[in-house]
Amino acid sequence: MTETWLSRFVADEEQFRTALWRTTPAVLRPERPPVDVLPAAELDRLLDHGLLKVPYLGLVQRDAHLPAERFCPPRVVLGEVVGGYADGAAVRSLIRDERATLLLRYVDQWHEGVRALARGLAAEIGRNVEAFYFLTPPGTQGRPVHRDDADVFVVQISGAKRWWVHGGPADGNWVPEREDGDPGEVLLETVLQPGEVLYVPRGFAHRARAEEGAPSAHLSLTIREAATANLYTVAQSLLADSCELPGRPLDDAALTEAAAALIAHAGSLLAELTPADLVAVTRQVMLQPAA
Question: Which residues are in the JmjC domain (predicted)?
Fold first, then answer.
């Protein structure tokens, strides 16, 4: 059987698509999980090569971000003082001594292997995919209970991490943020081991804590779905891009004529545009790399 990108995260693709996708958190045990894409041993090289900089790198303690100045000392380049570049020794010290969690953001934008993994998965499922890497000291919790505006595949790379996943939001009027109220009953509690994958549906509240004994490293693939704001943006773009009108009508009659032409054009376009078409176009737009 030909290996797919999705098969690196799930053992049974059909069962995932029909029984879990968007509805049910689960621990998945694929035959060949992508633990080799960014192994823990590569982290030291990334920290020490001197070009990793904020905002691609950050250090957090629960919901507080450490100031970049604490791990990004200034350096001189072409006679100018520049900042924001991570110092590996300073990063390791804050992880060790202050129990900070290391967060690597949008790894798909700057790491070749992770980029291939994210783009391959995105092409198969028709959604935008981004990647984040977390290194959490033993016995610590990197973030409070929160909800993400994405479905998430958590790939445990090394160490172990205990996860608690609560239910999803009650309706569509929710925002992705820290959950300060009651997140509801725990639907899934598990200790994720290396090679295992946790699936958290979009909006399901969750938190995690590294187990004692060793740091926990995991790679999160976030699968972005369209929101109402994306539909608005694409609909407005379709109307604007496909109707040629004068930019500055010269008088009231010309302005009224332009308004009539725009209304007629919008009516014609919307009469042909189905809801499914708008969703499909919006997802396709979200798949395109930012200019």
Answer: 98-242
One-letter-per-residue 3-state SS of 3-41 = CCCHHHCCCCHHHHHHHHCCCCCEEECCCCCCCCCCCCH
Q: Where do runs of H (alpha helix) occur along the chain?
A: 13-15, 41-48, 88-97, 112-125, 228-241, 252-272, 275-287
Report CA-CA distances (Å) from 146 to 56, 136, 165: 21, 17, 10
Task: Select from 133, 110, 125, 152 the least CA-distant residue to 287.
Answer: 125
Q: What kind and span of H or E run contains 190?
A: strand 186-192
125: number of Cβ within 10 Å: 16
- Contact assessment for residue 234 and residue 278, using Cβ atoms and an 8 Å cutoff: yes
Buried b vs exposed e over 224-235: b needs ≥16 C-beta within 10 Å?
Answer: bbbeeebeeebb
pLDDT for residue 291: 44
Question: Rounded to whole angstroms, how far apart are CA atoms 163 and 210?
Answer: 9
Nearest by Cα to 157 from 111, 129, 204, 198: 198
Backbone angles phi, psi at 90, to 5 degrees: -65, -40
Q: Distance (Å, rounded) from C-alpha 60 to C-alpha 8?
A: 29
Q: Which residue type does 63 have?
A: D
User: Tell me: the pLDDT tens digits for 206-255?
Assistant: 999 999 999 999 999 999 988 888 988 888 887 776 677 888 888 899 89
Torsion angle (degrees, nearest 10) of CA 214, 215, 216, 218: -130
What pLDDT, in 10s, does the model give residues 164-187? 999 988 888 878 877 777 888 999
Burial class of residue 110, CB neighbours in 10 A (0-12, 13-18, 19+): middle
Amino acid of residue 16: F
